[in-house]
Amino acid sequence: MKATITGLDALSKRILLDLDRGLKVSEVPEHYPVSLDQAKRLSRFRNMLNMAEENLDEKVFKKLESLGLKSLPLSSLFRKSDWEGIVDILAVVTDETKREELEFLLDGLEERRKRLREFKEEADLDLKRLEFKDRSLQTRERELLRLQEEINRRSVALIDKKFTVHKVKEELKEIKDERTDIQRKMENIKKRMVHSYKEIVESPVFLSEFDLKRQKELQDKALKWLFQRGFVAVADFTLPNGKRADIFAYNEAQIVILEVKVSHSDLMTDLKWTEYLPYCDDFYFFTPAELVDPVSLKVKEANCGQCVETEDGLKIIKVDERVNEVSGADELKFEAGQLLSRKFIYGY
Predict the structure, then answer these.
(1) Do residues 76 and 123 both lie within one domain?
(2) What is the pLDDT of residues 237-256, one digit of tens each?
(3) How far is Cα 297 from Cα 309, in angstroms, rounded to an integer?
(4) At what angle do helices 58-67 and 83-90 cross, to 10 degrees?
(5) Domain count, the chain
(6) Phi-psi region for residue 305, left (φ > 0), alpha (ψ -120 to 50) or beta?
(7) Pair (237, 338) in one structural domain
(8) What's the whole-model pTM score?
(9) What is the C-alpha to C-alpha distance for residues 15 and 24, in angstroms, rounded to an integer?
(10) Rounded CA gap, 49 and 61, in Å?
(11) CA 243 to CA 48: how far, in whole Å?
(12) Domain containing 192: what range?
């Protein structure tokens, strides 16, 4: 019988020590009561610890070490040497943080970075448009100034000359006013970039420990509610587009996705929820009662559904009115079943 390992227990520490001494991963099951899969996970954890010790300060290293094998979702950041992201996430975790909560924090990190990229791209595009318009006005301004000089040199009837000079001066003034307005808009965009960048960077995309616990409570309620109504339901299911649904559920007739939100800031900063829609017949936001009104505004345009927490489960207060044919529905259901089996067999 294989032992249960966490990366923190005595058996894990003995294996980690032997790996440091040169024991091959493939040889671990020959010496210890663990599977090859468990040995590989310990080896990945060891590699992460070695990289953290070399590149991060002691406090961050200790935080990683205290998580044990729960820290493995962070391996993607270690592969990319994303030390900034690793520090950001480890700053908010505790010994009680669960593996699925770490995965949620990874999503939060990526979401914040995506918002920064999108904001910068939009602001840069606005600046380029204004700069192009300003250059065009400068060209026209130079043409008019040359024309003005030529008129002053020409011998023409006084009335015609005054009329022509008046028109040129009028257009020059319009150009000057328009360029002043463009400069003002460009300055405002630059100020907004600095302010918004700081706002996004400092935004609470990482849920508090309390919010994480509340989210788990709502997730459990929804899973039980769906199971009682004949659905196969699984938490934290990764869709083909790489996005992870809080709850993916299905029966013979339909696929349902529930997105759980417990804080106003998390709800407002979520830009990815529409990417879930192609993979379900019905999509619902599931929230505590205090978020009902902001969710109503969020789902109105997409005609999605909304449900609210009750004492013993949830209550649907708006049905999903979309008509959607889910492509690859059978494959999605099979993947969800595989995930449930893996969690039951291996515990993760």
Answers:
(1) no
(2) 989 988 889 999 999 999 99
(3) 18
(4) 70
(5) 3
(6) beta
(7) yes
(8) 0.52
(9) 10
(10) 7
(11) 25
(12) 108-202
